[in-house]
Amino acid sequence: MRQIPAPSSTDPHWLGRALTGLVIEVFRLNGDLLAAGDALVHDLGLTSARWQVLGAVALSPGPLPVAHIARNMGLTRQAVQRVVDDMRTDGLVRLEPNPHHRRAMLVAMTEHGEAAYRRASARQERWADDLAAGLPPEAIEAAGTLLRTLQQRLNEPAEQKRNVPDPELIRAQR
After folding, report:
1. Residue 67: which CATH number?
2. Are the beta carbons of 86 and 54 closer than 8 angstroms?
């Protein structure tokens, strides 16, 4: 892990560089988490991507269209559609009619998908307990809070991020 120099009153960009270092670590962690997830559930016929989609369906109050799953996961509809198509072929999910939209079918888990998701979740719980052992709970909660705050800021309209009007919006209003 790369060390960020201590804050300096003479360096106005220190905080931005520190955030960039954090983002790089998050990218690396994401890759490691996906690889660990793939290894954890491989024998269940799952990948991290399949497991994520099953989780989105499981945590929803009812079946969802692919576009909603993608939005909830922060992925493209096309990526989720490919995963859903593969899982459908393997009997993990089924598509149901959507009373609100004729073409956007609803994704629901099959019994086979529910069983795989339950087994994966049980493994993940033990894995998370082992990974978190010895770490301060306050640090884990603070890291989660920071990541959620950054995600919220990324999803804010540009003019709210720094209380500066969005130049594109100004041009469009002229």
Report:
1. 1.10.10.10
2. no
pLDDT tens for each residue of 2-35? 565 566 667 889 999 999 999 999 999 999 999 9
Rounded to 10 degrees, the C-alpha dihedral 142/143/146/147 comes to: -150
Cβ–Cβ < 8 Å for 117, 53: no
Comparing CA positions, the residue from 101, 114, 90 lying closest to residue 68 is 101
With respect to residue 79, please indicate whether it lies within any of the assigned structural domains.
Answer: yes
Decide: helix, strand or coil at residue 163: coil
User: What's the number of domains the chain is made of?
Assistant: 1
Residue 155 lies in a domain: no
CA dihedral 155, 157, 158, 164 (to 10 degrees): -130
Alpha-carbon span 25 to 69, nearest angstrom: 26
83 and 49 in contact (C-beta within 8 Å)? Answer: yes
Average confidence score pLDDT of the chain: 89
Quote the domain boundaries for residue 52: 15-138
Residues with Cβ within 8 Å of 52's Cβ and at least 6 positions away in sequence, in order, are 73
